[in-house]
Amino acid sequence: MFDSLMELLRCPSCGGRLTVRDAGRRGSEIVSGELACVGCSATFPVVDGIPRFVPKENYASSFGFEWHRFAELQNDRLQGHTITHERFFLQLDCKPGDLAGLRVLEVGCGGGRFSDLVLDAGAELVAIDLSTAVEKNREIHVGNTRFNGIQASALAIPLAHASFDLVFCFGVLQHTPDPARSFESLVPFVRRGGRLAVDVYAAHPKQSLHWKYLIRPITKRMNEQRLLQLIEQVAPVLVPISRQIRRIPVFGKALSRLVPIFVHDGFLGRVSREEEVRWAVLETFDALSPAYDRPRSLRTVRRWFQKAGFTNIVAANLSNALNYGRGTRPT
Asked: Average model confidence (pLDDT) for the chain?
């Protein structure tokens, strides 16, 4: 963390300002020490350059495991594709230049696939994750003085209210115990005139019949390493089978959904065969390992923004799998 973060940090218990004690520095970065609340007796460690407001291991631990291994795969800059860029700026409905100079809060940053785009656009970013995935994000962006990572909960964000021009939370809400409450917790951090953007898995009647929901009661309790090894063993076989089935006229795409592996049409021809298998491993692990998986309808997403008093609300569906929304906090 850099000194610039101190003006924004607040105690998640009482909202008091924090001071740093026994700071160990590497250049201009604070890499160790302790944060102490001036309003109460709470203290929080700084470990490996990251303020820690939650236990290192928690219900999101599978994501820490996941992104320490796969973060680079989804990074456009490192992989030479634009898959993440296209999704990110579609959901925000803006161009990279629009983010230059803004102060941005990313809640649920994972390994940094979206963080990379925000920083490349010239914004100042505070990236939060409940899991140790934030460590991987920092590793990728170490030395960038516009990046600060925090390990904290979306339900107790340790930052000053109304401090951010843009708050976004992509790929996260469905994996929290209460998506609505998690959404509500984001609202106070958007400044007047600022924007909030979120997405969540799309709920529809057929969702409960998807094969992942039939086996998740077992897989979400499995050891992460064992589950990953199992998926890695079957993916090289199942990915080609899924592709072949999709070539069947009329019913191929629907039938391919019976194959227990996630293969996306949008990646075909844009990544190598080996990368496609790796993406399938990642996407399948991501679907089967989280403690929570709670889709929400497009109507629900729109209602969240309306209830919070936002204007310029847009709620839309992306590829039938994801509902996203954005809005502006009134001035």
From this structure: 94
Read off φ and ψ for residue 284, nearest 5 degrees.
-70, -45
Question: What are 144-192's pLDDT values in tens digits?
Answer: 999 999 999 999 999 999 999 999 999 999 999 999 999 999 999 999 9
Helix or strand (DSSP H, E) at 325 = strand 322-328
Cα 138 from chain centroid (whole Å): 14
Helices marked H in the chain — which ranges? Answer: 61-70, 76-79, 83-92, 113-120, 133-141, 179-186, 211-219, 224-246, 252-256, 273-288, 298-307
Contact 165, 191 (CB under 8 A): yes
Tokens of 213: 């929901």
What is the β-pairing status of strands 311-318 and 147-151?
Answer: unpaired
H-helix segments, 289-322: 298-307
Tell me which DSSP letter residue 203 carries.
P
How far are the Cα atoms of 114, 148, 238 from residue 320, in angstroms, in the given order? Answer: 21, 34, 22
Q: Fill in the DSSP letter of residue 60.
A: T
Q: Which two tokens stand for residue 204?
A: 């529809």
Q: Report the candidate in 126, 115, 114, 110 with the shortest Cα–Cα distance to residue 163.
A: 126
Residue 268 pLDDT exceeds 60 = no
Sign of the C-alpha dihedral, residues 289, 117, 325, 165? positive
Phi and psi angles of residue 51, each rounded to the nearest 5 degrees, phi first? -65, 135
**Distance in angstroms (rounded) separating the CA atoms of residues 182 and 177:** 8
The answer to whether 53 and 44 have CB atoms below 8 angstroms apart is yes
Asked if residue 132 has pLDDT above 90, the reply is yes
Cα R_g (the chain), whole angstroms: 20
Report the DSSP pairing between strands 311-318 and 190-201. Answer: unpaired
3-state SS class at 168:
strand
Helix and strand counts by DSSP (H, E) for the chain: 11, 11
Of all residues in the chain, the percent with pLDDT exceeding 90 is 86
Q: What is the pLDDT of residues 26-54, one digit of tens each?
A: 988 999 999 999 999 899 999 999 999 99
